[in-house]
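Postdoc handover notes: sequence design on the structure in folder B. Input tokens:
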């Protein structure tokens, strides 16, 4: 805060403190519980849900198209390969999707760490978007609108079930179902939903699952985390790798 004394002796303040306080509160909210990526996605989904209906009321619906993935316009709006899961016009679908993301995604983020979870989610979102765009472009004429939070949730659920295969959830509050079966049910539901449009679209909608098996390891979580560490994509792994390389160089110098 900057305080300026005016000619009449009164103090006048020029402050950016309120903005800094808001930013500080937002940061505290996101990092509370160690799931900033999950919370950020939830906040953005809720924000764009409200904006969607505001734009419709004001006849600015075309602004929503700036976030929806359209294969015919993908080169004009490449960012939509990442933003399409944020658009969810159906209230109930969004509510259940956010609850699912909160539990499944939050658990996975705490286990893997925010950076690896963020990278995984981005890769899954892009791969699914590209696959669905290719199918729509070559088989459906290209004019096809792609949006839905549940699309990347398929792979996120699959990864979670690989880390916690024996964890149980109560389906409808009464039927216990193990995580591995829950992942199959979720994937099957999305597959059937998009297969009704075109059979290849069903496979494209769930192809994000391939990212889970992209890195080999004893388990899904182990494989991804180890691969990221070994290739310097995790901060702690990068520092450890650099320290190891520096140590090897020092040993070579001593030998000579």
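Designed sequence:
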């Amino acid at each position: 805060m900057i305080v300026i004394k005016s000619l009449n002796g009164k103090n006048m303040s020029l402050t950016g403190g309120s903005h800094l306080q808001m930013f500080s509160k937002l940061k505290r909210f996101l990092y509370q519980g160690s799931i900033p990526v999950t919370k950020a996605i939830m906040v953005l989904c809720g924000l764009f849900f409200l904006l969607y209906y505001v734009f419709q009321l004001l006849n600015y619906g075309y602004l929503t198209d700036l976030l929806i993935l359209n294969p015919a316009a993908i080169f004009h709006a490449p960012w939509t390969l990442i933003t399409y899961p944020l658009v969810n016009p159906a209230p109930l679908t969004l509510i259940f999707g956010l609850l699912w993301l909160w539990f499944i995604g939050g658990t996975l983020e705490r286990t893997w760490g925010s950076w690896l979870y963020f990278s995984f989610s981005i890769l899954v979102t892009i791969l699914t978007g590209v696959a669905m765009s290719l199918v729509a472009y070559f088989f459906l004429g290209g004019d096809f609108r792609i949006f839905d939070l549940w699309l990347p949730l398929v792979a996120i659920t699959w990864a979670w079930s690989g880390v916690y295969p024996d964890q149980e959830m109560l389906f409808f509050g009464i039927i216990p179902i193990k995580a591995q079966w829950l992942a199959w049910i979720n994937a099957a539901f999305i597959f059937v939903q998009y297969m009704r449009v075109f059979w290849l679209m069903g496979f494209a909608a769930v192809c994000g699952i391939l990212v889970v098996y992209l890195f080999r390891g004893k388990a899904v979580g182990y494989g991804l985390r180890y691969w990221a560490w070994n290739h310097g994509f995790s901060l702690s792994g990068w520092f450890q790798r650099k320290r190891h390389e520096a140590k090897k160089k020092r040993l070579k110098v001593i030998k000579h």
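Context for whoever picks this up: Confidence is low (pLDDT under 50) at residues 1-7, 216-221. Don't rerun without checking with the PI first.
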